[in-house]
């Protein structure tokens, strides 16, 4: 369905996939149709819905998280990923959230062919990490120059970066180009190898990204959308 009407050549209600991929990108195109429409069922598409989800879930939630974490590692630690040294309840909640996301995504996709549910499980974790950053306020913690403050800041940023490492692996089958950009930004290949060689089942193993890894801001994962092209 497009705009509430069935796709039809005679009524000119169809949309060329090339129009969507050129505007949103191939990764976002693949993500949207797996995330917004249940596999094997009819669904309704609108340009406005795609644009809204792209901006909210991809650019703001996922892309902005990756950009903020890389920028803070660069600003506060010279681009070198610090070691986690002061884990607490907040970090434990992230560890548990990741384990839950991996198990849920594996069950939904691997056993039930529920791609929508699997993707939503991963993005629920992305939202959890965003909430963690907001609550921990690393930009304020950075003002505490004591050893305890430095250890706390290091823990927050390591936790966020390690979470992104897992997200890159989990979303690689759906968004390979985006995941590769993030993998490169995290400098993960130097210690963990190629992204294509990572196993989904091991994505939830905490602490795989070693301290000392060089983190760079890299390319924007989801560029700002241009105006909708006219026919």
From TrEMBL:
A single MF term (Gene Ontology): ATP binding
Domain called Methionyl-tRNA synthetase anticodon-binding: residue spans: 81-228
Keyword tRNA-binding: no
Pfam family, one: Anticodon_3
UniProt xrefs under SUPFAM superfamilies: Anticodon-binding domain of a subclass of class I aminoacyl-tRNA synthetases, Nucleotidylyl transferase
Family: Belongs to the class-I aminoacyl-tRNA synthetase family.
Protein name: Putative Methionine--tRNA ligase
Source organism per UniProt: Streptomyces afghaniensis 772
């Amino acid at each position: 369905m497009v705009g509430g009407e069935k796709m039809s050549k005679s009524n000119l209600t169809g949309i060329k996939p090339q129009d969507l991929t050129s505007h949103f990108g191939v990764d976002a195109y693949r993500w949207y149709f797996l995330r917004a429409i249940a596999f094997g069922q009819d669904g309704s598409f609108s340009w406005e819905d795609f644009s809204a989800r792209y901006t909210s879930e991809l650019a703001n939630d996922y892309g902005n998280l990756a950009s903020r974490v890389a920028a803070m590692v660069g600003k506060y630690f010279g681009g070198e990923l610090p070691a986690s040294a002061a884990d607490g309840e907040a970090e434990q909640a992230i560890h548990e959230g990741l384990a839950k996301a991996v198990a849920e995504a594996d069950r939904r996709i691997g056993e039930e062919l529920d791609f929508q549910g699997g993707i939503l499980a991963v993005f629920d974790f992305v939202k959890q990490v965003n909430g963690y950053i907001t609550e921990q306020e690393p930009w304020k913690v950075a003002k505490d120059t004591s050893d305890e403050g430095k250890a706390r800041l290091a823990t927050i940023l390591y936790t966020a970066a390690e979470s992104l490492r897992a997200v890159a692996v989990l979303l690689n089958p759906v968004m390979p180009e985006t995941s590769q950009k993030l993998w490169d930004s995290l400098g993960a290949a130097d210690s963990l190898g190629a992204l294509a060689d990572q196993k989904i089942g091991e994505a939830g193993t905490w602490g795989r990204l070693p301290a000392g890894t060089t983190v760079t801001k890299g390319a924007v994962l989801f560029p700002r959308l241009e105006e909708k092209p006219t026919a």
